[in-house]
Amino acid sequence: MNYLFYGFIGYCTLSLTFFVFPYKKKNVFKHSKYQKYLQRKAILHISHRGGCRENVENTMQAFQHAYDLGTDCLEMDLCMTKDKKVVVLHDSSLLRMCGVEAHVKDYNYKDLPKFLDKVRLDFAPNDYISTQNCKTPYLPLFEDVLKKFPDVLINVEIKTPDPEVVKAVNDLILKYQRQDTIIWGARCILISNIIVQKQNELLKSINPAIPRFFTVEGIMRVYLLYITGLLPFFDIPDDSMQAPLYTDDFYNWKLHVANSTSEKLQQMFFHNFVWFLGLISKPLFYHLHNRGIFVYYWVLNNENEYERALKTGCHGIMTDCPTLLKEHLVKKKLYGKQ
């Protein structure tokens, strides 16, 4: 028993030592803008879909407003049309935005339907935004975003991540030399309900130089290794942990769209589980920071949520309300462009 006890003490001591002073480090974020945030001089201001509570999501008007405001990072999602155009759109389906029960891949770009007069906001089941005052009421091309905003960081999720789409996105990133200002990720690739290749493995195989954000499985793996003390001894394959804070809006939205009592109970469990993870996350984020890994929270839309995130020591906050987040970070002297 004494050997087991001393072995356990030795393991804990070694784990704690390498947790505080990690030897497995990354340095993939080479752009000078990222270095400022790694040095904790500011909190990364990320505009979710351009700020979809202030402008129609994923439109050039939304991105321009966030850019003019001084956002550090534009978050967006990408799909591909029938004629192989990479467009900015969160849902691969056109139902919520355009009222059409079809997918982007079913249309050529020039034939895509118009927006509805008002669009329901995600994470807020009873909230809508009018499209009537939108000066750019169309789905923009990813290439146009890259050309229009050459000096802003971009966080990209590929919604239809088959190799052809990922290669097309990568070709555009290379064409405009944006490898150092892009973080990307994607969903699992499914064929007949079988995962044939994990999303980030595909992205890495096509361009390992572009930083990748964690998958859900990757986040859970990191927390499991953290809780067991094993994290300092394992490589972390991806580069940015983007975790949900599970805000009240998000929780109520999930309950609203749940189709059964079991789904509602599942959401109640996850709501409380994420709250628990938030309570133990500050040391983890310190460790990830020292390993050169960025941590963002999404999607936060009021000052109480911003404060919850800041207390954990995260690097960035993703919001639908870029003006409000800017005001809060300026007040806290954490805004990067003061």
UniProtKB/TrEMBL annotation:
Compartments it resides in: Membrane
Primary location class: membrane
InterPro entries documented for this protein: GDPD-Related (IPR052271), GP_PDE_dom (IPR030395), PLC-like_Pdiesterase_TIM-brl (IPR017946)
Residues annotated as transmembrane: 6-23
Cellular component annotations (GO), alphabetically ordered: cytoplasm; membrane
A Pfam family annotated for this UniProt entry: GDPD
A GO biological process held by the record: glycerophospholipid catabolic process
Domain GP-PDE: 43-329
Alphabetic keyword roster: Hydrolase, Lipid metabolism, Membrane, Transmembrane, Transmembrane helix
MF annotations from Gene Ontology: phosphoric diester hydrolase activity
UniProt record similarity statement: Belongs to the glycerophosphoryl diester phosphodiesterase family.
Protein name: GP-PDE domain-containing protein
Organism whose genome encodes this protein: Paramecium tetraurelia
